[in-house]
Specification:
The protein is mainly alpha-helical. About 95% of the residues lie in helices and about 0% in strands. The chain is rod-shaped, with a radius of gyration of 26 Å. Keywords: Coiled coil.
Length: about 120
């Protein structure tokens, strides 16, 4: 009974770990896309500043508007979400380890009891 309960708990933990890893991969893709988009805007405006230096102040103003608080806030939000997912993944890995230890211990005790009979 104890062994089967631990095996069920381990299976549930591994399923949850899989879900967290999928969410993490999805957030990584979103973050990469977000960074690429922000970078494209930045590169495009940098080229414009290089080609037309006397409008640098105007372009900088446009750039600050485009990449201002909204971009920074989204970047920070994605970073926080990823951090939470990494933390959750770590906790699930620790839980998996603890379940494995308990499972091995229970299996050894069960084997010892069978040998002693």
């Amino acid at each position: 009974k104890v062994v089967s309960d631990l095996e069920v708990e381990l299976k549930k933990n591994n399923e949850e770990l899989g879900r967290v890893e999928q969410k993490l991969e999805e957030k990584k893709r979103v973050m990469e896309s977000h960074i690429r988009d922000a970078s494209r805007t930045s590169n495009g405006l940098s080229i414009l500043v290089a080609l037309v230096p006397f409008v640098g102040a105007i372009v900088k103003s446009i750039y600050d508007t485009v990449t201002g608080p909204g971009v920074a806030a989204k970047t920070q939000a994605l970073s926080n979400e990823m951090s939470n997912l990494f933390s959750e993944k770590s906790n699930l890995r620790n839980k998996e380890w603890n379940i494995q230890v308990k499972l091995t211990d229970s299996q050894l005790r069960l084997a010892s009891m069978k040998i002693e009979q």
